[in-house]
Amino acid sequence: MIRFGIAGIPLTSKGRTFIESVEDAHNLGLNALEVQLLRVNVEERPALDYAGMKPRDIDSSIIVDVLRQDENGNYVGVGIDTVIEEDDIVQELFWNMARNYDDLDDGGNLARELDVRLSMHAPYYMDLLNQDEMGDRSYNHLKWTLMIGKAMKARRVITHTGFYRGSKKDSLKRAVEVYQDISTRYSPENGYPFIGVETSGKTEIFGTVPDLMGLAKKIKNIEPILNFPHVHSLTGGSLIEIKDFDAVISEFRKYSKIDLYTEFAGVEYEGNNETKLTAIKHGDLKFETLAETIIDYDGDMTIISCSPLLEHDAQYMQLIYLRALSKKYQKRTTVKKATA
Fold this sequence. Notes:
The mean pLDDT is about 95. The chain has helices spanning about 20-25, 100-115, 135-150, 170-185, 210-220, 230-235, 240-255, 285-295, 310-340; strands at about 1-5, 30-35, 40-45, 60-70, 75, 90-95, 115-120, 155-160, 195-200, 220-225, 260-265, 265-270, 275-280, 300-305. The chain has two domains: about 1-30 and about 100-340, Divalent-metal-dependent TIM barrel enzymes (TIM Barrel, Alpha-Beta Barrel), CATH 3.20.20; about 40-95, no CATH class. It is α/β, with parallel strands linked by helices and about 350 residues long. Strands 1-2-7-8-9-10-11-14 form an eight-stranded parallel β-barrel, surrounded by eight helices. Strands 3-6-4-5 form a four-stranded antiparallel beta sheet, with no helix packed on it. Helix content is about 35%, strand content about 25%.
């Protein structure tokens, strides 16, 4: 099955919540939604008001950690599967798309009922290879996205990695350390989504195809995410013919989890760097060619529109694909009649 979806809230949506986005994606005839963790604020505060409650029972925020004093008097995280005590400190996440864990659970249940496949995207600015404060902040953002993804039963969390630090070899080594750590702490075996590491569209940012293949070979719970406009930009416009698309799809398929997850838009690029995502009718990256490639794809695939036109282009891609599929079967029928 080929699923088509969007990255974020539909442009035509009147509501701005997670649950409303699921409903609107379904009403648009789409069956995939990449929920984006944007505009979040995390605050630490004394937990006195919540004493005796469990984090999931709090309706005013999403508690992402409970900090408790250890034997040395230092506050350490004890997770959210605990009863909050008076002397604890809670980390509260405030997000405009969901108020609490009930919202996440209700939206996830609705998505399953409507057959809208959920994924999540961590904040877009990430610098996971940085070993200073920015690296810690990026790690926490990915951790929180995994926690929310688990609560809504998303299949994967997509993230960028950030800037190279030193050589590409050194950067890959550091990336393996970071992703090995977080994918072990928050593993699919414990109900968390797979971590999908996205291809980069700029030369200074970690995420070439070899980068991601290197990660996936070393870490079983890491999934390389094929963003077609990023790959196209970074390789100076290499995705032109069916064989070009087929080659890159074959690489990513080796390490895909559940289905092959991809993103598509038109793109402008210069000097092997993406300058702007565009509507899919613009530029030399053609969805028509991809559609001709995947009509013979024998597995499951998700194609997410990251175009500025979002759901319009998702629906347009769906139409182009169905036309290509119909044309293929018409040819088969014509051949059968001719040989009968």
